[in-house]
Design brief:
12 helices, six-stranded parallel sheet, alpha/beta, binds D-glutamic acid, about 270 residues, four-stranded parallel sheet
Length: about 270
């Protein structure tokens, strides 16, 4: 008889709830896996922190979680962290680490007017990693960059039931509203932004929005399938877990909503 090994937990990590947009795609493709969703709300947002700080912090959060659970694979579901942390993380941990970075390559294949917009945190916009991605995959396109600190919080608030202030959003996106050539393809280079895609679409009605969620789910599938033969495994019997680095009223309300994402058990971790 073939013994089919069940993967251990797959960890999805972000500074906040943005990584849920990636987790959603992973769960659609691989509902049978056991997931841990961890967010570093103690240090949210990462978009205004230094690179050195983010590297140390992400190391210490992943290290803490890896001591508590057996991890098969980690997804750093945060562009701000992935564009700076991956080499360091990969040198420290033996499990595969998948990063989420702006979907410049697919955008360059979709654009009709060769004008791409990249919407991300200020930190992601400034990274050499991002400049290199553009150089490598969108050399023949004009790439408009817009780094915003406020959008991730607007998305967090929306998930908590606070409606998006459309005037505020419009003001933030003002730099792109008066452009002679408006990007026809906009890369959502922060995992929080798919949660406010409907509102962004109202402001840019003709644009196509691209995020990395689906591509990450496929990447994770391929990596795990090579090791565990996923079409033979049965659904994990354990409840999915949600972890945060601080507990407050916000988290108290949030964990009730996360049940809808099949994230059932909550624990606070100290890093
Ligand atoms: N979700 C994170 C990203 O993809 C950013 C949010 C933050 O600033 O912490 O970049």
């Amino acid at each position: 008889m073939n013994i089919v090994r069940q993967p251990h937990s797959v960890l999805v990590f972000d500074s906040g709830i943005g990584g849920l947009s990636v987790y959603n795609e992973m769960r659609k493709k691989m509902p049978y896996l056991h997931y841990i969703y961890a967010f570093d709300n103690e240090m949210f947002p990462y978009g205004d922190k230094s690179s050195e700080f983010i590297i140390d912090r992400v190391n210490s959060v992943i290290e803490t979680i890896a001591k508590l659970y057996t991890i098969s694979l980690v997804v750093i579901a945060c562009n701000t962290a992935s564009t700076i942390c991956l080499p360091n993380l990969r040198s420290r941990f033996s499990f595969p680490i998948v990063g989420v970075v702006p979907a410049i390559k697919p955008a360059s294949q979709v654009t009709q007017n060769n004008c791409i917009g990249l919407l991300a945190t200020k930190a992601t916009i400034q990274r050499t990693y991002t400049t290199n991605l553009i150089q490598q995959f969108a050399k023949n396109c004009t790439v408009k960059l817009l780094g915003l600190s406020e959008l991730a919080l607007i998305a967090e608030n929306k998930l908590q039931g606070i409606p998006v202030d459309m005037q505020q959003l419009k003001n933030l996106l003002q730099p792109w509203l008066g452009l002679t050539t408006v990007p026809d393809t906009i890369v959502l280079g922060c995992t929080h932004y798919p949660f406010i895609k409907d509102e962004l679409q109202i402001i840019f009605p003709k644009a196509t929005f691209i995020d990395s969620g689906n591509a990450i789910a496929s990447r994770v599938y391929n990596l795990l399938n090579a090791q565990y033969n996923l079409h033979k495994i049965s659904t994990s019997s354990e409840e999915n877990i949600v972890l945060s680095t601080t507990y407050n009223q916000y988290v108290e309300k949030l964990i009730l909503k996360l049940v809808n994402y099949n994230l059932i058990k909550y624990h606070k971790i100290s890093c």
